[in-house]
Amino acid sequence: MADFPLPPGSTIGILGGGQLGRMLAMAAARLGFDVAILEPGPVSPAGRVSSLEICADYDDEDALEQLAASCDVVTFEFENVPAAALKTLAGFGTEVAPGPKALAFTQDRVEEKRFLVAHGVDTVAFEAIDSAEDIPAALERLGAPALLKTRREGYDGKGQAWVKDAGEAAAVFAAIGAKPAILEARADFVRELSVIAARGRDGQVAVYPMGENRHAGGVLRTTTAPAAVPDITRDRAIEIAGRILEGLDYVGVLGVELFELADGRLLVNEIAPRVHNTGHWTQDGCLCDQFEQHVRAVAGWPLGPTEARCAVEMENLLGADAERWAEIAAEPNAVLHLYGKGDARPGRKMGHVNRVKPLR
Ligand code: AMP
Questions:
Q1: Distance between Cα 92 and ligand 1 center (Å)
Q2: Residue pLDDT, tens place only, 22-62
Q3: CA–CA separation, 348 vs 336, rounded Å?
């Protein structure tokens, strides 16, 4: 096992080679670390900026052994890496952060909500669904319409469909792939907010100001930060983040998506055990962004400052949006972040832009 804090010159491994891995790798490089990526697809966004790219499936034992031999610590950029991969790495004596507990609770929407409720964190009412026959009774308890989501592997609104009445149960269950699911009561929210927080190896916790998020078609379009929220909302979000970080015995950065209700209450929609799209604003709004913060945490360094130095409006560049790069680059207060992806498929996250303004 490695000795923490890891000195510059150590190597950080990342499972996953997408844009989050890329921005983690760039932050790690700035602190003098080398980065190794394990990613199934060839020429990944993260692989292009890292010193080693291993192109193999996440459950490829030889690839995991090579990663373990190359790295002092391993982290991941998305939560759907197989739990077995973490176990295999641990078997080679490699430290993985965040640990298997964080992955276990966040890979399954039902387990995640049960964990939250057990730790005194509010969520929408929900029921586990194993077959279409479970839906009518659950719908009766939760009220219609309710949102059916696959328990595992859903993201950006994929694997989700509304159930308006019991007669639609079979069709909607089939539409999400007839997989184990969760049925959620509809959250009557006024805003979607999020909070990005980190916990270090010594248990130190750091929380960024909240972001206000706008989605379209289940995909994040913009984050405005710091969100204008009453102190009580901010305090509650800090408390929620703290409970989750402690409960998961967490090391690293975590994103928490929240629904704000008309009466000011916050419900947790989802936890992401990784750097998060709603935290991209920190790159140009804070001295230590979420990517550096995650690197610091997993490397056992002290956590960095989280207060906002300016206000930021982050806009995701999806598909052809990224063709506006020259226009955006000419804006005086915009910082362009592109992910080095070749194929601008509709809806694909190609980059983002942070537009900065003075703090109000
Ligand atoms: P998720 O994949 O769980 O993050 O959901 C994607 C988006 O769907 C969220 O950002 C919300 O806009 C919406 N959504 C998810 N769950 C609910 C819910 N229970 N009630 C109302 N809207 C929801």
A1: 39
A2: 999 999 999 999 999 999 998 899 999 999 999 999 999 99
A3: 16
* DSSP class of 258: E
163 CA to centre of own chain: 27
Cα of 132 vs centre of ligand 1, distance in Å, is: 21
pLDDT bucket at 156, cuts 50 / 70 / 90: low
Amino acid 173 reads F
CA of 149, closest atom in ligand 1: 3
Tokens 């000195």, located at residue: 7
pTM more than 0.85? yes
pLDDT tens-place string over residues 260-302 = 999 999 999 999 999 999 999 999 999 999 999 999 999 999 9
pLDDT, tens digit (0-9, with 9 covering 90-100), for 178-236: 999 999 999 999 999 999 999 999 999 999 999 999 999 889 999 999 999 999 999 99
Question: Whose alpha carbon is nearest atom 8 of ligand 1?
Answer: 218
Please give the distance, rounded to the nearest whole angstrom, from the Cα atom of residue 265 to the centre of ligand 1. 16
CATH code of the domain occupying 11-96: 3.40.50.20
Which CATH superfamily includes the segment(s) 125-185? ATP-grasp fold, A domain (3.30.1490.20)
What residue spans define the domains of the chain?
Answer: 11-96, 125-185, 189-357
Q: CB under 6 Å to ligand 1: residues? A: 124, 147, 154, 157, 184, 186-187, 192, 215, 218, 257, 269-270
Overall CATH class of domain 189-357: alpha beta
> 257 C-alpha vs ligand 1 centroid, how far in Å?
9
Q: What's the CA-to-centroid distance between 192 and ligand 1, angstroms? A: 9
d(CA 291, CA 280): 9
Q: Which two tokens stand for residue 342?
A: 């070749």
CA dihedral of residues 347, 349, 350, 351 (deg, nearest 10): 130
